């Protein structure tokens, strides 16, 4: 599902910003496969007749010097002023003057290039998209990226970038797609990230810490993937503000604690909810029974307890329900026999169901079930907030939620081929 989103967003970016370009983005991968011999039919003007292409020439030459290894020879033909003939460089008419041709896109996906981004990248001020997925670029994102005020898509995924979240992207006025997954960025996520009108937010597989900002729900994204970071804390109750847009929420292995907030039930468009491999406690929120579009619900490897309610097991679109490696002790109705639901894959191993095989020992279950978690007792206020005491220590618990009436994995390094 995330891959289909990437494709649609790319098409939108080209339609909106690479006006009158003579090829579609769907052909980029095929052209890359022949990059050693491919030449664009557009020819750049001389530096004196087109100063913007001359600026691009300066930037791309500086970038070439910042490349240590290019095993697929992507940049071999980055020679001379005809930058529109460079492999991975795409030109189009300027938005402010269609008579002038400019460098509007750079796509070096899957090039396996090692190097860094030079400061001169800021000279490429006409860029609408940068795709650098699956390379070995390293270092810190240069501040001169702030000059790329027409940038619509930025994909830095699956590289070796370091440093704090690249806040230089936050002021970019037209940025709608941001993918920085599979790098080594660290520190907190800035709250300003969720005030941007982004279609998708991919920050998984980095080293981000602190808590998820409380204004998370201010975003307009349809897909949010935070997996494999070190956030900690709770899912903020403001997640409910995502109701009109969010379709996929992936929080695998992010050190989350506390209970799942009832506000998740407001996310009536949600199709994927994956909070596996965390330290989440308490019951499954009853509000999830209203998520009519939910297809994948993954709760495995947490410390959830209580009842697996029939309302969740009867969700009409549910295709995969994984709740193994928790401390559930009872299944209601059809939940006791999910094999009767045709097309539904489920996993209920390593819980505390007394009549089922492959469950936890009585000793292990009793240690947790003797200390039930009250998710309404304490608010989830972060490191200084209160928490319910469980057999495993103190867990931060979200605030009590009002009754809700709802309106009705994918972590392989990214590759565009």
Count the beta strands. Answer: 23
Low-pLDDT regions: 1-45, 381-410
Major sheet: arrangement of strands: 2-3-5-7-9-11-13-14-15-17-19-21
Largest sheet: 12 strands, mixed
- Derived from helix and strand composition plus strand pairing, the structural class reads alpha/beta
| Oligomer description | single chain
The ordered string of helix (H) and strand (E) elements is HHHEEEEEEEEEEEEEEEEEEHEEEHEE
Structural features:
417 residues, alpha/beta, 6-stranded mixed β-sheet, 5 helices
Structure in words:
- Strand 22 (387-390) and strand 23 (393-396) form a beta hairpin.
- The strands form four sheets. This protein has a twelve-stranded mixed β-sheet, with helices on both faces. A six-stranded mixed β-sheet has the order 1-4-6-8-10-12. Strands 16-18-20 form a three-stranded parallel β-sheet.
- The two termini are 16 Å apart.
- It contains five helices and 23 strands.
- With 417 residues, it is of the alpha/beta class.
- The radius of gyration is 24 Å and the shape is elongated.
Question: How is this fold's topology laid out?
Answer:
Layout: H1 2-17, H2 28-33, H3 51-65, E1 67-69, E2 89-93, E3 101-107, E4 114-116, E5 129-131, E6 136-139, E7 153-155, E8 160-164, E9 177-179, E10 184-187, E11 200-202, E12 207-208, E13 223-225, E14 248-250, E15 272-274, E16 281-282, E17 296-298, E18 303-308, H4 310-313, E19 320-322, E20 327-331, E21 345-347, H5 362-369, E22 387-390, E23 393-396
Parallel strand pairs: 3-5, 4-6, 5-7, 6-8, 7-9, 8-10, 9-11, 10-12, 11-13, 13-14, 14-15, 15-17, 16-18, 17-19, 18-20, 19-21
Antiparallel strand pairs: 1-4, 2-3, 22-23
